[in-house]
């Protein structure tokens, strides 16, 4: 086989390339295993010889994963820590000494209150640990901000440059299972914004992926998206992780209206002119077991991201495709998402999945169901589809636009979805059934229906 030309070997290797788990499992309930796969034929082939390694390399890293560093690196400096530092001044590093001097002057003007724990959130200064900071490394409470693993990412960046892989890497998954817990600290916002901006700057300097997926716990994802959660009920939903997927337009397909067609700032949503946004918020079933569940509010990162697109982005750079995945989300949540979508005039494809998929056995798992009652779940599902149907009937979709319901994978649910789509047709809004769970907008049929309504005085 070594006598074959490289072009033919590349063609042979391409037959081992398959859809990555980050695509195949995106609709599954979010977990830390999004990028895990039991089958790795390309990786195995790359290990057979250096020749095959060279051939396979551009394909092998087409879908890459970057895990954020799990080590906490920030210390909240308060008056009590400052006292401990004062007793060890001769042992402090230069960085620790500068921190001590700066904080001493800050607390001097508020010494009466500095030791009152109720003032900690206002007075503490968050300080990042640097090399040689032995004192700060020994502080009991070290905090975590999202950040790239400096050494590992530097090595990865060097690897990408050495083998010219920048334009071969089509997709990246940014992953962490660490929960960001400093939302209550007033001084944390600026540090978080800077840390997140640094993450995206480094990634897009090294790579130019057409697809970016972020998999993280809700509080962490909010920080990575530069939005708030706007919910005090996160505990009720017990959502371990959310996914967001952003896909770019094809190269050269975007004709910008002006140079100010979007902010182009540090937020991920403004880093590129994305054409597709997909979101998987997982299951809301746990919340149905709580008292007055219908009053609970799920995290609002998707809503706020869509509002950013609606308010800050011109048509040339806005999304054309949107998908939402959740397991029995509250209809109030779906309603807010749909209202935000109403403000994005460029939509051409909308996809929803709000019932458990074939891979999900939540309804038959008593531990997951808890005290949730199936009738309540389906009541919210039906309310959600009424909202979706109203959106499909009132939004100004162009000919050829698509609506896809992934809920049609289950026969009984499929009948319900088709009934809602049938009601749209009887009201003069024609969505033509073109495939399994797929409908296409045909405005000419809308006009024919409107004409018949005018012509028939009995209607």
Computed over alpha carbons, the radius of gyration is 26 Å
Q: What is the spatial order of strands in the main beta sheet?
A: 1-4-5-6-7-8-9-10-12-11
Helix tally equals 18
State the assembly state of the protein chains. Answer: single chain
| Biggest β-sheet strands, sense, barrel | 10 strands, mixed
Percent helix among the residues? Answer: 25-40%
Q: Helix and strand succession?
A: HHHHEEHHHEHHEHEHHEEHEHEHHEHEEH
Structural class: alpha/beta
Protein name: F-box domain-containing protein
Organism: Lentithecium fluviatile CBS 122367
Describe this structure in words.
This protein is of the alpha/beta class. Among the domains are: 74-137, no CATH class; 150-396, no CATH class. 39% of the residues lie in helices and 14% in strands. The chain is built from 18 helices and twelve strands. Strands 1-4-5-6-7-8-9-10-12-11 form a ten-stranded mixed beta sheet. Strands 2-3 form a two-stranded antiparallel sheet. It is globular. The termini are far apart. Residues 118-123 and 450-459 have low confidence and may be disordered.
Structure described in brief:
The chain has 18 helices and twelve strands. It has helices spanning 6-14, 21-24, 41-46, 50-60, 79-86, 94-108, 120-123, 134-137, 150-162, 188-206, 218-224, 234-237, 301-312, 331-341, 366-369, 374-394, 411-426, 443-455, and strands spanning 63-67, 74-77, 125-128, 171-175, 211-216, 242-248, 274-283, 321-327, 349-353, 402-405, 431-435, 438-441.
């Amino acid at each position: 086989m070594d006598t074959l030309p490289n072009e033919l070997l590349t063609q042979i290797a391409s037959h081992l390339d398959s859809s990555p788990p980050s695509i195949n499992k995106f609709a599954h309930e979010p977990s830390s295993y999004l990028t895990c796969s039991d089958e790795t034929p390309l990786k195995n082939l790359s290990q057979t010889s250096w020749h095959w390694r060279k051939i396979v390399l551009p394909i092998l890293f087409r879908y890459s994963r970057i895990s954020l560093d799990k080590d906490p690196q920030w210390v909240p400096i308060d008056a009590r820590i400052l006292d401990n530092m004062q007793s060890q001044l001769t042992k402090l590093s230069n960085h620790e000494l500068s921190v001590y001097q700066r904080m001493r002057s800050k607390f001097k003007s508020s010494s009466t209150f500095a030791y009152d724990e109720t003032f900690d959130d206002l007075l503490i200064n968050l300080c990042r640990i640097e090399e040689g900071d032995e004192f700060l490394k020994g502080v009991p409470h070290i905090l975590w901000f999202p950040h790239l693993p400096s050494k590992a990412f530097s090595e990865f960046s060097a690897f990408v440059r050495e083998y010219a892989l920048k334009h071969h890497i089509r997709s990246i998954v940014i992953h962490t299972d660490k929960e960001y817990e400093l939302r209550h600290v007033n001084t944390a916002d600026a540090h978080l914004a800077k840390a997140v901006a640094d993450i995206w700057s480094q990634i897009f300097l090294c790579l130019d992926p057409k697809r970016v997926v972020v998999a993280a716990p809700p509080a962490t994802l909010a920080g990575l998206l530069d939005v708030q959660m706007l919910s005090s009920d996160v505990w009720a939903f017990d959502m371990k992780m959310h996914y967001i997927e952003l896909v770019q337009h094809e190269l050269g397909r975007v004709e910008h209206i002006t140079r100010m067609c979007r902010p182009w700032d540090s937020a991920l949503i403004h880093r590129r002119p994305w054409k597709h946004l997909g979101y998987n918020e997982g299951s809301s079933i746990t919340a149905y077991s709580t008292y007055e569940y219908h009053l609970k509010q799920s995290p609002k990162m998707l809503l706020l991201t869509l509002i950013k697109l609606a308010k800050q982005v011109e048509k040339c750079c806005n999304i054309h495709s949107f998908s939402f995945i959740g397991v029995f989300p509250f209809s109030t949540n779906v309603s807010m998402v749909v209202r935000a979508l109403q403000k994005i005039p460029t939509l051409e494809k909308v996809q929803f999945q709000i019932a458990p998929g074939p891979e999900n056995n939540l309804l038959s798992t008593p531990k997951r169901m808890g005290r949730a009652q199936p009738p309540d779940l389906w009541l919210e599902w039906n309310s959600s589809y009424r909202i979706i149907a109203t959106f499909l009937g009132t939004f100004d979709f162009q000919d050829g636009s698509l609506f896809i319901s992934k809920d049609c994978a289950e026969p009984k649910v499929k009948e319900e979805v088709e009934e809602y789509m049938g009601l749209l047709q009887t009201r003069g809004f024609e969505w033509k059934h073109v495939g399994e769970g797929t409908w296409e907008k045909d405005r000419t049929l809308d006009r024919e229906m409107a004409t018949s309504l005018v012509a028939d005085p009995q209607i």
